[in-house]
Automatic annotation (TrEMBL):
Belongs to the chromate ion transporter (CHR) (TC 2.A.51) family. The chain crosses the membrane at residues 20-44, 91-114, 126-144, 156-189, 201-223, 229-255, 267-292, 298-320, 332-351, 357-375, 382-398. One of its GO terms (cellular component) is plasma membrane. This is ChrA1. It is a multi-pass membrane protein. The lineage of its organism: Bacteria, Bacillati, Bacillota, Bacilli, Bacillales. The keyword Transmembrane applies. It is found in: Cell membrane.
Length: 399
């Protein structure tokens, strides 16, 4: 006797427990004071929007995190796009994304102006020496909370988590096929039903929309250099997985080796700027664009980087919202989420290896972790500011 088919049930969407303006203000604040890179930022969103304010359900958050891991581009920005879409659709996604990215964009443009005016940022080494290691403590704590909440006590999920974490730490890259495979594996283990077909139209990228929007900005500027910036950074935003981890070597190869836009030392400074400013780490593209072609270069580079990620989030978002609760897809998303947590944990190791280089930096990371663990109202921006001040004092003594 065949198993009865379950008819889809119409569910009336619950009204949002917040206004669109409140959501925009939240992402504006997060983009202004959210330090720690993508791992910490996705942790902040879970803490603030799911646990504390209860604006977003845990299921919607998991769907957004899974989708953000599957699609190329900056992880934290994509999750912000998706969470903005949950209750307010395309307009919510658009405004949340702009509010999230704009503060850090303006900061890196200002730093780019100062960098060119004063011939470099000599004090940055001292600041980054302490801030970089302190940020590792923030990232590690956020990764712990996110993993404990999403993986739970499921041994299979912990196995997936461990494999992906080790792979990411060893190779220093994120493999989307591994993450997809984790979702398929968990679905196979948990579901006996054959998965239905997914129409490609949910995932089709409207390339003409991207080309029209980006080309408008370049045409207004009228520069061949801007066209080169547009094409290069659009490729980075559309085809590079792993966000802050994978995009750095990709950018180095193109910016320094292929195009010769920056020197080695200028590129390192660009990455450092992104790490000490709040918001998405990939905003370093704005700093690079400014050094190459001024404000127009910064705007084109940032637009080209974030627009593909935006489209690759909102196009499949209706599918995740409509079908994400079905058992087969829910199992797949759960497996992908566990793999995403593993990739985040591996990223903590990779970033920590670069930032914790001696005893003082180890102490900065451990003290930050201890403060966040023991002091419930500890403020990450205050911790980062304190670390920056201490770096200016400690760095000259140790170097």
């Amino acid at each position: 006797m065949s198993e009865p088919q379950l008819a889809p049930t119409a569910v009336r969407p619950e009204p949002a427990p917040y206004t669109l303006w409140q959501l925009v203000l939240y992402f504006l604040k997060l983009g202004t004071v959210g330090f720690g890179g993508p791992v910490a930022l996705v942790g902040y969103m879970f803490r603030d929007l799911v646990e504390r304010r209860r604006w977003i359900s845990e299921e919607d958050y998991k769907d957004g995190l899974a989708l953000s891991q599957l699609a190329p581009g900056p992880l934290a920005a994509q999750l912000g796009f998706y969470l903005g879409y949950v209750h307010y659709g395309v307009i919510g996604s658009t405004l949340a994304g702009i509010a999230f990215v704009l503060p850090s964009f303006l900061m890196v443009v200002a730093l780019g102006w100062a960098y060119q005016l004063y011939g470099g940022i000599s004090w940055m080494q001292a600041v980054f020496y302490a801030v970089g290691s302190s940020v590792i403590g923030i990232i590690a704590f956020s990764a712990y909370k996110l993993t404990a909440k999403t993986v739970g006590r499921d041994r299979v999920l912990w196995g997936i988590f461990a494999v992906v974490a080790l792979y990411t730490a060893w190779t220093e890259t994120e493999d989307v096929l591994l993450i997809l495979g984790a979702g398929v594996l968990y679905w196979l283990l948990k579901s006996a039903k054959r998965p239905g077909r997914v129409q490609a139209s949910f995932f089709a990228l409207p390339a003409d929309t991207l080309t029209h929007a980006a080309s408008g900005a370049v045409t207004a500027a009228g520069s061949s250099t801007l066209w080169e910036l547009l094409l290069f950074f659009a490729k980075a935003g559309a085809f590079v997985f792993g966000s802050g981890i994978a995009i750095v070597p990709f950018l180095f190869s193109g910016v320094v080796k292929e195009h010769g836009w920056l020197t080695d030392s200028q590129f390192v400074d660009a990455v450092a700027v992104a790490m000490i400013t709040p918001g998405p780490v990939v905003i370093t593209t704005g700093f690079i664009g400014f050094l190459v072609a001024g404000f127009s270069g910064a705007a084109v580079a940032a637009l080209a980087t974030f627009l593909p990620a935006y489209l690759l989030t909102i196009v499949p978002a209706p599918f995740f919202k409509k079908y994400g609760r079905r058992p087969g897809i829910a199992h797949f998303v759960t497996g992908v989420t566990a793999a995403a947590c593993g990739a985040i944990a591996g990223a903590v190791f990779v970033l920590g290896k670069r930032s914790i280089v001696d005893l003082p930096t180890l102490l900065f990371a451990l003290v930050t972790l201890l403060l966040l663990w023991k002091v419930k109202k500890a403020s990450e921006p205050v911790i980062v500011l304190g670390a920056a001040v201490l770096g200016l004092i400690v760095y000259p003594l140790t170097h």
